[in-house]
Amino acid sequence: MAKALGPTDAPRRFYGEELKRLREAAGLTQEALGKLVFCSGAYIGQIEAAIRNPQKDMSEYLDRVLKTDGHFQRIYEMVRKASRYEDYFIDAAELQSSAVTISEFSPLLVPGLMQTPGYARAVFEASHPLRKPVEIEPMVALRVSRSELLDNSALQYWAVLDEAILRRPVGGAPVMSGQLTYLAELIRSRRAIIQVVPLAAGAHALMDGSLCLMTFDDAPPMAYVEGPKWGGLMDDPALVARCSLAYDLVRAAALSPEASLALIESAAEDHANAPRAVA
Q1: Which long-range CB contacts under 8 A does 144-150 form with residues at least 24 apart?
Q2: Tens digits of residue pLDDT in 90-126
Q3: Which of 28, 25, 30, 24 is CA-nearest to residue 47?
Q4: Cα of 244 vs its chain's centroid, Å
């Protein structure tokens, strides 16, 4: 079923209409064009229907194949500007929405797909201390809305978290207890597989940052890494393979899913029972 279009989707819809018009003018089927730009015909059809966002490299390929002199790259920039996500995260968010597996490692905070409103609000308030609540709340709502991906039974989501995440009282003890209780609910409802790397494990293969691996039905796997106010996608097969190996090593160093659930629930209880600050 085609996704309903809203006001911010106008550039994406225009991109799709232009792609269909110029593809047909070139006498190409969706499948034929897909082969020329290294994707499936179904993917071309989804872009034409404005179901999926175009990508930067795809726009470059289309301009080259259809001889459109940067036309699609210019529309692509319009699509990016219409997005509500941070510029560096736009492509990663779109890719996550179409992935069949997402495997994440996070060393510092609960991944965005699993954040509760209270936790997300605390993260945004800490990183944007001068923004007013009226500016923070749309950011919180957008991040929390992404959790809908976990309701998709076709998606396999696997997260490995550092134990430090469970111990840091982001937003205060009540917020943190609620966040960890939510993680336990995700595990028990089989919407996510979560493992915890215990502090006692010492050094591991991903000490240097977060990692998100994605696989797709109609495209090669990709990796996404992120730091403060920046993010980067990798599609080079050799680099993605190295990232996959590092993730496998971290997963092997983590507690079993059952032991991880027990630790998460224990930490949630610890936060729930923590002494309240006296005003």
Answers
A1: 144/115, 144/116, 144/117, 144/120, 146/93, 146/96, 146/112, 146/113, 147/113, 147/114, 147/115, 149/96, 149/97, 149/102, 149/113, 150/113, 150/114, 150/186, 150/191, 150/192
A2: 778 888 888 999 999 999 999 999 999 999 999 999 9
A3: 30
A4: 16
Q: Alpha-carbon distance 24 to 33, whole Å?
A: 10
Task: Kindly report, residue by residue over 49-81, the tens digit of the pLDDT.
Answer: 887 778 888 899 999 999 999 999 999 888 877
Q: Which residue has the higher pLDDT, 63 or 219?
A: 63
In this structure, the answer to whether residues 210 and 97 fall within a common structural domain is yes
Same-domain pairing of 58 and 125: no
Residue 95 belongs to some domain of the structure: yes
Long-range contacts formed by 57-66: CB under 8 A, 24+ apart:
61/36, 61/37, 62/19, 62/37, 65/33, 65/36, 65/37, 66/22, 66/23, 66/26
Model pLDDT, residue 97: 85
Residue ranges making up the domain that contains 19 = 9-82
Look at residue 128 and tell me if it is in a domain. Answer: yes
Q: Please check whether residue 191 is in contact with residue 151, taking contact to mean a CB–CB distance below 8 angstroms.
A: yes
Beta-bridged to residue 269, according to DSSP, are: none
